[in-house]
Fold this sequence. Notes:
alpha+beta, Neuraminidase
Amino acid sequence: MAEKIEIEKASSSSQNLICPLCLDIFDEPTILRCGHTFCRKCLKKYDLTHQDIDHMVCPLCREITKLSANRVDDLRLNVSINGFVDDYHAKCGGMNAVLEMCTKCTGCKFQQDAVSFCITCNNYICDKCLQSHQCMTLFEDHEIVSVEDVIEGKVSIGHQFEKCSIHKQENKDMFCDDCKVRVCLRCVVVGHKVHNIKNQSDFEHELRRKVTELAKQCAAKKAELEKNIQNIELQRHEVHTAMQKLLDDVSQAYSIKVKELEGNLQDLIEQINELKRSFEDDLNILKSKDRQRIKSICSSITLVDNDRLGHLETDSLSAHNLLCNELEAMLKDVTNRTTAEVIAKKAQEKRLNPGDKSRLDLGFISGSDPKLEIIKCIDLRGKMIGMTAYSHTSVAIVYGSSARGIDIIDTAGGTEQYTNIPHDVGYNDIVIQRYSALCVSTGNTEAHVYSTNGSRKATINVSGTGYYLTLNRSPSNEILIANGANKVYIYDPTGSTLKHTVPTKHKTWQVSSTRSGLIVTSSCNFLNPRVVTVYDRDGNAGESLQAPKDVYLYAAVDEQDRVYVASVDRMGCKVVIRLYDLDGLNLKERVEFKALNMTLGDYWCYLVSLSPDLLAFACNNKLYFIKVLL
């Protein structure tokens, strides 16, 4: 009797140790944040389909549990349930097999071992119940099968309904879809009237059909994905083939370019060797002249320094006297101490002028006399208001309300009007963006961005200070705007987004940018101070270059991040241009070129770098193209 009670307790308690996913006794019961417990291996299988997220959704209540880097492995073990599982296994041992083999009669109250199963009654029956089924006409239509056939799987007996724990005689043969529990008919009437109730058999059939359909879909999807994996590997081969061809093409192109560069290198080496020979010859000539003078001095002193000078005849005395005079003159000659230093200085002043980025060459050897040369002076058709680089050999000029429109002018003096946008408007400034798009300012607060076909893409509105907007662009095609305020506005290339506002120490009128994003500002107005300053994007500034009284400074940045600064003395009609290298946020002077005589007539000027060896300078109604020779 005690053994029977223990078996019943074990069978009952095992129902509380079932994993909701695998429907088996818990194996490493693992608890989620919500308190629900599952087998660790079941959670790992479940997590395989959610590797792209950093959390797990509980399969029962949908609450979220955050996962660490080790995912399920770092979740806590449910110690309580794990203890119950261990106790269950310790107490029961092989009890499950015994229970399965010794099924009890469910048709009567005596709990005898079942020998048959009545499919009609849906009950296991003992010998006495079997005799009743065989003898009584009440049961003559019932279908009876043996327990051995049921255990061996020869006969399917369908589902054994669990008895309701509240209404003891009722089967839990219905399923509440709202509460997700099995219930009996009386439970439905009492507590689940308005719920969505399904017949247990129908629910199981529906669920099984759904699972079967999902299994088919999974098989189809698996086949599709495996086919896709095969295609991926095929495409991987195609990619590798294409990349290898690209690599071969690059290697071939590299070999060709290397030959060109090697030829260029050889030419430069020959030039340098020729310069070296020339300087060596010059130094050797100097050395030879000094050695010859030493030889002459030694010969002369040998002739005149003689013990018999007192016994010489008149002619000999005269000859020695002449030799002494020549020796005195020779000694009075100034020793040439500077020519060799001049030659060395010339050698030290030789520089490699790097090649233009648009050409494949290393560059050329420059001379020792850096200078600027005005190669073209052009009369403009009105007063210049704004200027920008249009190409490596041309500029775009805007004239404002006096002459209106935009002119494109090249180094040969060729001029044409730009007509893709309205040309009867008085523009204040212009900048040509990449791919021939452009931005123009039309007043104190507005600038417009146009596409290559002349359609307006965007309008930029800047809070005004009463002064018109000046424009430029960065090497990354951002739009730079100054308006005489203590700040610089930086917009994205479309003009739709203000990316940065850089505070400045002085009122800023013109602005440029380096490849690294530094901002070079010019405070080139009649107001003091007139300075050029370099800023980073956070507004940190270097030491400013400041102009003396009545001199205005205009800055331009070239493709190599060198900074040209024009000092304009309007009263003296003189322009001095200096070349600076960037040293952090400071400007380090490299070259001061000789002053250029120009017709000025106004304090408002523009300096633009078109290429590393070409500048454009405009003032009032004059435009100058200036060649840079370093």
